[in-house]
Amino acid sequence: MPQDLPINSSALVIPGGDVVHCDLDGEAVLLHLGTRRYFKLNRVSAHVWDRIGDSAAVGALRRSILEAFDVDPDRCTRDLDALLQAMSTADLIEIRHVSIA
pTM to 2 decimals? Predict the structure, then answer.
């Protein structure tokens, strides 16, 4: 997927099955059990992880960030897309693109 195009709002984000997490006073730490790699999440990233739950649409995640944090909408889109791409690359999440028939 080209970096300059935002992830479609209807795409679903699903947490990886081999990932456990621990909340740390507003931040979080993820552990990928398969790779044994740890990932520390800041407040915003921890907010996103918490909102993913069993699955979440990218559009809902964007709205949640905009409601909870003082951020420019364009920056929110860019930063969320970068976060989701990085999490996907690390096998922490799966992004399922929904096709409209």
Answer: 0.89
